[in-house]
Design goal:
The complex is a heterodimer of chains A (455) and B (498). Chain A contains 13 helices and 14 strands. By secondary structure, chain A is an alpha/beta fold. Chain A has a seven-stranded mixed β-sheet with strand order 2-8-7-6-5-3-4, with helices on both faces. A three-stranded antiparallel β-sheet of chain A has the order 11-14-13, with helices on one face. In chain A, helix 6 crosses helix 7 and helix 11 crosses helix 13. Classes of the chains: A alpha/beta (455), B alpha/beta (498).
Chain lengths: 455, 498
């Protein structure tokens, strides 16, 4: 039988030791009216090879980013995964360990978390980071809860330029907790207009303003002005960043964010249809006892050596139960480890190159797109790795056309932040070659000239 | 195999030092594909960071050595027993890892057309149906990324159902005092009120206390079954009658589902919602804290409140993603949850089948009962009747006789190469020592645990200070947790060699 060590003789031996005749006796005390009196309606167990084949069949019925050329983004990116990430997270010592509640035999996991926290703080310019959240969207929802608790104001302000999937998660979370949500419409530049934000903040005292940078349209927001406006209204600033962009862009620490969240899938994590991902959450020092999730601290042991422990645990559910700052328990530990290894591999030099690589590719794509008659770039502010293209015909048609040529063209934006049916969000990563970008431009030209009509 | 227990030897390793203190200027691990195009124009300085992030600079071999050295400091399931009660630390099959990493699965982007993910959707729907059959329910959402996340979604669903009936004044969720901490926390973050129900002396829910607690404010009850003492709630049918009679719904925390696979189903017990921990019952790895996956299954009248989109199969056999009217504005994850974890769990379910899953439960329960029986003269067991997959002992007697606490026993076990059981939980047992061996442990492994416990008791009798100071043979000793909380050092502050 798969994975269970006992032979029938072992079972008999154990039953005899207990003075029993059958395993069934161990279940005899379950009330008869709730016992399942039949077998589960599932197939019999398969051999390892049969299961592998089952999944081979399933995988063959899909077409992933390894097969198609991907310009999809929107929070999940087709990025390089170093082989050392795969190798190290496959080690039993990391893979099959539990949460490090016994620090004496968990220093490996604990130190890796501390190193992740250190990387996040250095990247974002924040003071404190936690061990991970489920994904960027839940990290943001939790950060909003922190702000509401800190400011004691039951209102959260979101911009229309926030990833709509994240906004939905935040709204669900706030609705559950009885917290109101207000939205600031996008300005003509595709970013949040400072005057519009001030208007919304003047209506009612807000706990926080969520500041995505770059925003969902790929654009760099006027972060200093927006953060200042939020602060002037007494609202906390929650930066929601693409961490890769912080290779180049101003850090949330520099514009005085109270909290910073994001999605770190791009750091060595395969996309797997959107999960498991890696949310991160960081804050300024004043909020460190309010944030959710596990935090590792460095301390000393009884032998006088330095070492690591889970700390500030009085925030957490296993200690404080209903008074905890969050219900989170399991997090994205192994994904965090991947990202930590990725950042160690990247190093100072790699980070700078990664930023430049994204910039070079997105600008090359934009330059080529601008030359296609009928295609425009509706917003010309600075971008990092994503851009909106306005097509002469519906974005969905272009997507279908490009897919027929082996290219995943982007995400249709209809209804998002003032965008229309012809707008598409296109992303690049360090993996895209010049030839692939030229191919994208050629498809764009063909489409603009009427290609893919009626497809 | 002999049951003789060797006195543990000293740990001879060396602590690896900080990553941020390693490497040197100009070193590089990762490089990127060459770019043949033009460089980008520089971004305006006003949007750029003032100085580059201070990262260390390491070569690939240095990175491998550092993290391998870290890994060597961890206990893990492939090293030795991990009898953490309520955590179900079972063997994590490598087959699961292999299938989830396959091209065509791991490289799928969540914004791809459904036509490109037909095999994946079929797999996930297969898993949903299997989980519904295992739990006795009608519909499933794979979106929750962890058990607590499933609890949160379950509470959202139950509340949405009440609200849809115009019964939104129901804000109380009843929770037995033996519950996991996530239960009351999940209720509280919903703006609902957890109300604690006492347990009877036999460790089950007190029906009189329950009858006194239900009323017009009752939205539901959250029950772990078997509960955190490893005991089946024998009166569950009566609990269901009382709570449903008062207008509430029954939520089951499925953390202990490993005890009842193929034996009993929450849906048949009167529950309306259950969450499962795929990283417990269905063998996906804990990964040092995650990722988990906490799908919920619900009764048919609650299905419409699950978040969209839902996977459906068309008449032609193809799969679609359908959004239900009404639930469209509800979501708890940017995409569809921890899909890669779901695939691993599916591999486990396919590999085991109906026969294997039943065997899993039988052997998990057999192991727990055998261990409880063999330890009967070593440590006192609370609620000695009919435990299922785990049991709770108490170190009370050791404390009285030897002045040794449960924590000391736990720490000494680490010296013998075993992970400690769950200690000081559930809260209703003094000096709790909660053991869940799972079906993974062989007879020899269980016997060794017993022998080690006997050796530790002999040490407690003759040299209690040995236990007070334990562990002695681990990479680090007991940590100064008070200092860590008082004077938080939460990140590396020094410069890097870059």
């Amino acid at each position: 039988m798969a994975y269970v060590p006992h032979a029938d003789a072992d079972i008999r031996h154990m039953l005899e030791a207990m003075g029993l005749d059958s395993v069934e006796q161990l279940f005899a005390h379950l009330p008869a009216n709730v016992r399942l009196d039949r077998d589960l309606d599932l197939p019999l167990g398969l051999s390892e090879e049969e299961v592998r084949d089952w999944f081979r069949c399933a995988a063959r019925a899909n077409r992933g980013q390894g097969e198609l050329v991907s310009f999809l983004g929107g929070g999940v990116y087709d990025t390089v995964v170093p082989s050392v990430c795969d190798a190290l997270v496959s080690r039993s010592e990391f893979l099959t360990a539990y949460t490090p509640y016994q620090p004496e035999v968990s220093q490996g996991t604990l130190q890796a978390i501390y190193e992740w926290q250190s990387f996040v703080c250095r990247l974002t310019g924040m003071d404190v980071a936690n061990a991970s959240m489920y994904d960027g969207s839940t990290a943001l929802a939790e950060a909003c809860q922190v702000a509401v608790a800190a400011k004691r104001r039951p209102l959260v302000v979101l911009p229309a330029t926030l990833n709509p999937r994240w906004a939905r998660v935040v709204r669900t979370s706030m609705r559950g907790a009885g917290i109101a949500v207000a939205e600031v419409p996008a300005g003509p530049a595709g970013t949040t207009d400072v005057a519009q934000l001030e208007k919304v903040l003047a209506l009612a005292p807000a706990a926080c303003f969520v500041l995505p940078n770059p925003n969902y349209l790929g654009l760099v927001e006027p972060v200093d002005q927006l953060a200042a406006a939020a602060r002037a209204a007494g609202a906390a600033v929650i930066a929601a960043v693409n961490p890769v962009s912080l290779a180049l862009l101003k850090t949330p620490g520099e514009y005085g964010a109270d909290l910073c969240v994001g999605e770190a899938q791009a750091f060595g994590i395969p996309p797997t249809w959107g999960g498991p991902l890696l949310g991160f959450l960081a804050c300024s020092d004043e909020h460190k006892r309010r944030i959710p999730g596990r935090i590792v601290g460095r301390t000393n042991d009884s032998r006088g050596q330095g070492g690591y422990v889970l700390t500030l645990q009085t925030r957490e559910q296993h200690i404080r139960r209903e008074k905890a700052t969050s219900n989170i328990c399991s997090n994205q530990g192994l994904m965090m480890l991947r990202a930590t290894i990725y950042l160690a591999m990247l190093g100072a030099g790699g980070l700078a190159e990664l930023g430049d690589a994204n910039r070079a590719r997105i600008e090359a794509l934009r330059t080529r797109a601008r030359k296609v008659p009928g295609v425009t770039i509706p917003f010309d502010g600075p971008v990092f790795n994503e851009t909106v293209l306005r097509l002469p015909r519906p974005a969905r048609e272009f997507r279908a056309f490009a897919r027929s040529r082996g290219v995943l063209a982007g995400i249709p934006l209809d209804g998002v932040a003032g965008c229309g049916p012809n707008d598409i969000l296109v992303a690049v990563t360090e993996k895209r070659s010049l030839a692939q970008i030229d191919l994208f431009a050629a498809l764009l030209a063909e489409f603009a000239a009427g290609g893919g009509k009626g497809a | 195999m002999s049951n003789e227990v060797k006195t543990p030897g000293r740990w001879l390793g060396e602590l690896p030092g900080s990553l941020f203190d390693k490497g040197g200027p100009g070193r590089r691990g990762l490089t990127f594909p060459r770019w043949d195009g033009e460089p980008a124009p520089a971004l305006p300085a006003s949007v750029c960071r003032a100085k580059p992030a201070d990262f260390p600079a390491l070569s690939e071999p240095e990175v491998m050595r550092h993290f391998t050295a870290l890994s060597n400091l961890n206990h893990h399931i492939e090293r030795g027993m991990y009898p953490l009660g309520s955590c179900t630390m079972k063997y994590n099959p490598r087959l699961n890892e292999q299938v989830a990493a396959m091209p065509g699965l791991a490289d799928l982007h969540p914004e791809q057309d459904v036509a490109d993910v037909q095999g994946l959707l079929g797999s996930l729907l297969h898993l949903e149906k299997a989980l519904c059959e295992i739990t006795g329910f009608a519909a499933c959402s794979l979106m929750p990324a962890a058990g607590a996340h499933g609890e949160y979604l379950g509470m959202l669903v139950i509340r949405a159902w009440h609200q849809a009936r115009g019964d939104g004044g129901r804000t109380e969720i009843l929770i037995p005092d033996s519950a996991h901490g996530t239960n009351p926390a999940s209720v509280a973050i919903m703006g609902m009120v957890p109300r604690q129900i006492a347990s009877r002396p036999d460790g089950r829910i007190d029906l009189d206390a329950l009858k006194a607690a239900v009323g017009p404010k009752t939205a539901g009850i959250m029950i772990t079954n078997p509960n955190t003492l490893g005991l089946f709630e024998n009166d569950i049918a009566e609990v269901s009658r009382i709570v449903h009679g008062a207008g509430g719904r029954l939520y089951m925390d499925g953390a202990n589902l490993n005890a009842i696979l193929g034996k009993a189903r929450p849906g048949d017990m009167g529950f309306d919602v259950v969450h499962m921990n795929l990283h417990k019952t269905f063998s996906t790895p804990h990964g040092g804290g995650g990722p988990g996956s906490g799908p919920i299954c619900v009764a048919s009248d609650l299905a419409e409140f699950l978040p969209g989109p839902r996977i459906a199969q068309q008449a032609d056999g193809s799969f679609t993603l359908e959004r239900l009217p009404g639930a469209d504005d509800t979501s708890i994850h940017a995409w569809y949850g921890n899909v890669g974890v779901c695939l691993r769990a599916l591999a486990y379910i396919l590999r085991n089948g109906r026969d294997g899953l039943k065997r899993v439960t039988e052997c998990a329960v057999l192991n727990a009962n055998y261990l409880k029986h063999e330890l009967r003269d070593v440590i006192e067991v609370e609620h000695a009747d009919g435990c299922l997959h785990e049991f709770v002992a108490t170190g009370r007697g050791w404390k009285d006789r030897y002045g040794v606490r449960t924590l000391d026993i736990a720490k000494r076990l680490l010296d013998y190469g075993m992970h400690a059981p769950t200690v000081y939980f559930p809260l209703i047992v003094e000096e709790a020592f909660m053991v869940e061996p799972t079906e993974t442990e062989s007879l020899e492994s269980l016997d060794r645990f017993v022998a080690v416990m006997k050796a530790i008791r002999a040490e407690a009798e003759t040299d209690p200070d040995l236990l007070h100071g334990a562990p002695h043979h681990t990479p680090v000793g007991r940590m100064d947790e008070a200092k860590a909380a008082r004077d938080p050092d939460l990140r590396w502050l020094g410069p890097c060699n870059c």
